[in-house]
Amino acid sequence: STVECISDTISQSPPTVLSDCGEILIPVRLANGGTFAGCEGTITQNWLYTDCEGNTEDWTYTYTIDDTTDPVAICAALTDVTLNSTGHDTLTQTEIDAIGVASTDNCNGVLTFEIDDDTFDCDDSGTSDGPVPAANNRVNRILTVTDCAGNSSTCTAVIRVMPLDPADYTPTNGVATTVCSDVPYSVDPQTYINSG
Prior knowledge:
The chain is mainly β. The protein has 2 helices and 12 strands; from the N terminus they run ββββββββαββββα. It is rod-shaped, with a radius of gyration of 29 Å.
């Protein structure tokens, strides 16, 4: 039979087999076989019957694991990235994985995550000057979530791009100059991050 996940398989009951003399033979369960290696493939459940003369017969039940269900892609509500001193940032794979960590798979398998654009610069950091940054420093990216069988789905990741990183600047008189020209100069970096 064909099932989606390894968890859908159950231990089968072998048939009743009689010898030529009419005796009921008690099967011995053998090790499972098949090609399943953690995602898709086959699993065979094997039994061996032996009569009093030593004659043997085996019986095998085969499961085919065929996952055809897309994972459920769930993006984090908001993800912050902070531009470096050159006005750029590139998401690491760990950061991309964190965006989709809430995604689920019907077989509880390992999911992989890919984003359509992992780089950010000053063009993404908003265009409004003023003491309090506007909410338009948010950009959307498409996250693709793929399971081990190649099934996939997408969700929209909302990225908040911060043009200041306190670790990259040496404040003067308690303030630091922004790296992007389209945000306020001489604003406290942490204040910008907290209010953005």
